[in-house]
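User: Predict the full complex structure for these chains.
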Amino acid sequence: MALNLNCPICGPRSGYEFRFGGEDKGPRPAEEGATTALWLAYAHLNRNVAGVQREWWCHKDGCGTWFRVCRDTVTNCEVPTVDTL
Amino acid sequence: MLKRSTQPKRLWRSAPLKPAYDAVVIGGGLHGLAAAYFLASRHGMQDVAVIEKRYIGYGGAGRNTAIVRANQRTSENVPLYKEALDMWPRLTRELDFNLMFYNCGNLNLAHSEAALKAMRLQTATAQFHGVDSRLLTPAECKALIPALDITDRPKYPIFGGMFHPPGGIVRHDAVVWGLAKGASARGVHIHQDTAVTGIEVQRGKVAAVQTSRGRIATPRVLNAAGAYAAALADHLLDIRLPISVLTIQAMVTQPLKPLLDHVISSGGYHIYANQTLKGEIATGAHMDRWPNYTTGTSAYYIKHQAEALTDLLPCLQGVKFMRTWAGLADMTPDMAPIMSGNDPVQGYYQDCGWGYFGFKSCAAAGKYMAQYMTTGTCPEILAPFDPGRFAAHRLMGETAALVNYSADN
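Assistant: Here is the predicted structure of the two-chain assembly.
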């Protein structure tokens, strides 16, 4: 389904120019003292929210910027950033 | 004018929602219905409920392209899919319902030396497990499907193929109806329009399932909610799974005279197609490139399917698509499913992560999940599918190449 995203550098562009970069799981765990469970959660586990989630995208076929957006996974529309997520 | 004198005969009975069941299955799709059927028919469980938020067969069960096969890649997966494939004729008899299994064989095309090499390994694995699968030259592919263009003209010329004669097509709606009929006849209660809203856990054990129509006390629950299983596990039990949910699209052309006698697929073109008994070419595409629950269709894939199909089968040029639809695929990083139980909650079982392989596997998965739920012990054949493999970083390698749906790869 059609998706348009707002690249912070290039503005609104077709979703097909972007690469999905996964759910926003916060900063990468520090290697010092990181447990298997922590790495598993960071590398593989997803919440799979049917609704609004914050996620990473890369403007692969454009400027190459990585950025975060909020998107409703049920409607495929970008929504204004929600700080509480 | 004809007048109907009696109500149409229902294949399954509606039943009142009881306050307690021996087992509750979340999801009236094929995995849930199959598990319920086998719980009742093989393990004598008297009180089983299937709860379905919408209607049975609403999800992946009625949206797949009906292809069945057993030529998976790894030794853990092939035996499970082989058993599932072998079960179609037996289930047809057992359910006394025509599932319209048509073992026309699957031809998977290779468009490079590398793809042929991967197929060589895949056929060797299949043959080791007693699954008929063999490599074909381009000329042999053309002998099977004369409409195929094996010249150098297509964008991705055909280097060879992997033919899997026992695979084919099963009518997916018939499987829904047949399993519902069989389960209902053995006392299973099928509750449609009933959404799960909570799972009650007491002292580490499942105690009840809360639904939109009331509470059901039960010692065991199976999460067979298909593409919604991962979100449910997170929402209800705070169990996060290594799953990404993606929309996958399919479409059919106008009906044509017979020209495609086998299921044809191509990883290079990202298509799979077969000709239905009505004559339509039913064809499916690759998944959306980002997770979503839209089940929306897009011009992007209609264009892609048209280009790919007419490149391989030039006689389809000018043929029109009649209908397009989409379903959801819950993908794991290794493209193998997740089946587990009693971890971390006693009595909680899950059968999910099937991606786009949920249809072909449903009979065997249902059979063994029913055994798991009855005995509480994981059947040997399901042991490799425990999600613990992801923590141990022992991914199964059902995928030949890295896929592009998540940040994991």
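Strands of chain A lie at 4-7, 11-14, 19-23, 52-58, 66-72, 77-79.
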